[in-house]
Design goal:
Layout (H helix, E strand, L loop, with lengths): L6 H6 L14 H11 L11 E6 L2 H15 L11 H14 L6 E8 L10 H21 L3 E2 L9 H8 L5 E3 L3 E4 L13 H4 L8
The structure holds flavin mononucleotide (FMN).
């Protein structure tokens, strides 16, 4: 099922979708993703976030060039059918075709909490990532492919300068969004009993 509002099905199938069709995504749908993102909690409800969305060709071309500079003219595509090789092939397809991604969302956040005294960056990151996860879940619910990536880390200054992101605002993630080429499927995670510690770490 590609569109679903069952929250557990959404979470169970919210895979990183890196293989995206170039078909445009309506801005109303992108607004819906940001609506979902901004329903998230934030430190003291300060909501110090902002969402840079690049959906015009010039901006996407700039981002595509940055990717090619970072990863080389062509990302090396590994052989084999094991999950890590398959994942790297999907990363390569995304990187090599970054200009064709319909929309790229950068969840951004200001370092401004607590408002009195020195702001603590821990609050900034712990504010932007719940919002980012809401955005990813909303994309999955709407049948849109998206992936949490940190591609901005190697190029943050260049992205900041090109799109006018202020100095006191940090970019938390780079989220490509589009209609997926493949199907949504279950995520692979550790069993719950392996990660719960009942009443103490040895429990
Ligand atoms: C903090 C963080 C950083 C990530 N960085 C990247 C990245 O730079 N590029 C990428 O393609 N995926 C990135 N991912 C996605 C992970 O590779 C992906 O969630 C993981 O392999 C599990 O795959 P799945 O979500 O499809 O089950 C990142 C995820 C997180 C949480």
């Amino acid at each position: 099922m590609s569109i679903t509002s069952d929250i557990f099905e959404v979470m169970d199938t919210c895979r990183a979708m890196r293989r995206l069709k170039p078909d445009p995504v309506d801005r109303d749908l992108l607004r819906k993703l940001v609506h979902a993102a901004t329903r998230a909690p934030s430190a003291g409800n300060t909501q110090l976030w902002g969402f840079l969305i690049v959906d015009e060709p010039e901006g996407k071309q700039f981002l595509g060039e940055l990717m090619r500079e970072q990863f080389g003219a062509r990302f090396q595509v590994p052989e084999g059918d094991e999950p890590p090789a398959r994942m790297m092939r999907a990363v390569a397809e995304l990187v090599n075709n970054f200009d064709q991604v319909p929309a790229v969302i950068f969840p951004c956040v200001e370092n401004g909490y607590p408002p009195e005294g020195e702001p603590n960056p821990m609050f900034m990151w712990s504010t932007i990532y719940p919002a980012t996860q809401n955005l990813l879940l909303a994309a999955r619910a709407l049948g849109l492919g998206a992936a949490m990536t940190t591609f901005q880390m190697a190029n943050e200054e260049a992205i900041r300068e090109r799109f006018g992101v202020p100095e006191n605002v940090s970019i938390g993630a780079t989220i490509p969004v589009g209609y997926p080429k493949g199907n949504f499927g279950p995520v692979t995670r550790k069993p719950v009993e392996d990660v719960i510690h009942w009443n103490g770490w040895n429990g």
